[in-house]
Amino acid sequence: MAQWQAIADEKNPSAQNRRLGSRGFRLGTLVRWGKEWFTNRGKSRSIPKSLSWFLVGLSLSAAIAACGGPTASGDNVQLTLVSYAVTRAAYEQIIPQFAQQWKEEHNQEVTFTQSYGGSGSQTRSVIDGLEADIVALALALDTQQIEKAGLIEPGWEQEAPNNAIVHKSVAALVTRAGNPKGINTWQDLAKDDVSVITANPKTSGGARWNFLGLWGAITQTGGNDTTANEFTRQVFQNVPVLPRDARESSDVFFKQGQGDVLINYENEVILAKQNGQELPYVIPEVNISIDNPIAVVDANVDKHGTREVAEAFVQYLFTPTAQREFAKVGFRPVDPSVAVEFSSQFPPIQTLFTVADLGGWDAVQTKFFADGAIFDTILSQVSR
User: Which terminal residue of the chain, N or C, has fewer Cβ atoms less than 10 Å from its own Cβ?
Assistant: First the structure.
């Protein structure tokens, strides 16, 4: 049985040009080595010829080893998966299944080190040196930050099925028992007597979904930016505090008893129910598709020699077997056959929109969340 441990809480080349064969060794790297060696020959006259040839041989040996990768029979390989907290329940089931399959097919033990925490914090950790082979984060914007840091190559969305979206969710409005304020739609959050709990989208990646859900509830149903701005301002006028992240938001709502409604996510309320906590909630009929991406961290898998098994794991996550595990803990599966199996768990959404409908993450970040953008303006208007 595969060994694995969990650590909790803690420019665009084509695919053909990016890889040499299924081993994942990069042709560009080999070419670069050759160019660098021949370029520097004239600058290294003091190096004995025997040492020069030794260095060439060493480089070629490294190239051959890289081509071979870690998949030789009998070798062990270790992967580091960095993800956000609520995915842990699924990965604890998926990882042993994948490891067993890999062992049967390659006669190789796979050990997984796992790290879970807030998506934004996990992103910063990877950029700061946590050597993840695979990142499964809450939103593509976080993955793009790792790309901008030079650790993931552009075009990662095309390296996995479904544009690298491995599972989905939608926004959920968690109310007090009996829903005394009669909250059923986004518009109800703007009522004068309703207190709303949501995290700060400037510090919480997940809270950006909340903000976009509010905004899109207007713009995706015939409204314009002016009406969306006013509506969103009214909602944030009803927000008494802005916790740093989703965990703090939940503490404010459940432990401190503040607020009439908590903007949360469908997968979290389903998982809470499985853990014995029945939460009253509403799924708005106009909703945002909360798309969660998966990506191989190119710089790290090449450094570790783990590209082949890392890419195989990513592909495995899109199989019906893995998709069922995501669905069991509340994520909407992206495999159509599994979606049919779990259709009773996930009510259909009348108007479902995506970040792409709002212009894509780059445009969204600039328009809403950059310093001085719409969210900052709204905060200044509500004196917060």
Answer: N
Predicted pLDDT of residue 246: 86
**CA 307 – CA 218 distance, rounded (Å):** 43
Q: Which residue has the higher pLDDT, 19 or 133?
A: 133
Residue that the structure tokens 């990513």 belong to: 314
Nearest-5° Cα angle at 250, 248 to 251: 65
Reduce the DSSP state of residue 350 to 3 states and report it.
coil
The 3-state secondary structure of 83-132, one letter per residue? EEHHHHHHHHHHHHHHHHHHHHHHCCEEEEEEEEECHHHHHHHHHCCCCC
Q: What letter does residue 78 receive in the DSSP assignment?
A: E
Do residues 330 and 267 lie in contact, with contact meaning Cβ atoms separated by under 8 Å?
A: yes
> Confidence band (pLDDT; 50, 70, 90) for 384?
low
Query: CA dist 83 to 69, 72, 243, Å?
Result: 25, 28, 21
Q: What is the pTM of this model?
A: 0.80
Q: Are 213 and 263 in contact (CB under 8 A)?
A: yes
CA dihedral 256, 259, 263, 269 (to 10 degrees): 50
pLDDT-derived band at 108 (thresholds 50, 70, 90) equals very high
Within a 13 Å sphere around the CA of 55, how many CA atoms are in the beta-carbon half?
14
Secondary structure (3-state) at 80: strand
* Rounded-to-integer distance, Cα 100 and Cα 88, Å: 19
Give the residues across from 261 on adjacent strands.
175, 196
Please write the tens of the pLDDT for every residue from 184-234.
Answer: 999 999 999 999 999 999 888 889 999 999 999 999 999 999 999 999 999
Name every residue whose Cβ is closer than 8 Å to that of residue 159 and which is 6 or more positions away in sequence. 15, 295, 296, 311, 314
